[in-house]
Amino acid sequence: MVDGGRAPKGSEKDKSGAGPEGPSPASFAGAGAQFVLAILLFLYIGKWLDSRLGTSPWLLIIGVFVGAAGGFYSFYRRIMSSSRERNGG
Length: 89
What we know:
By secondary structure, the chain is mainly alpha-helical. Helix content is about 65%, strand content about 5%.
């Protein structure tokens, strides 16, 4: 009997884009784009603050490092989440 058009158990993708073989390459491409956007966002915030406060280039540099740290943290969480899902934990 047909089960209502649902895919077999274990073959459905979850919210993170992970299937039975693990995460899709598209989910990691999205993580890379998020990393770049975090850096650019904080770079422009630092540049804007530098122009307002006259502290050039210090806040720009700090913004790049804060954006990179946030991007790395987000990417790390995504990798660890997909690893746990793949290992059944």
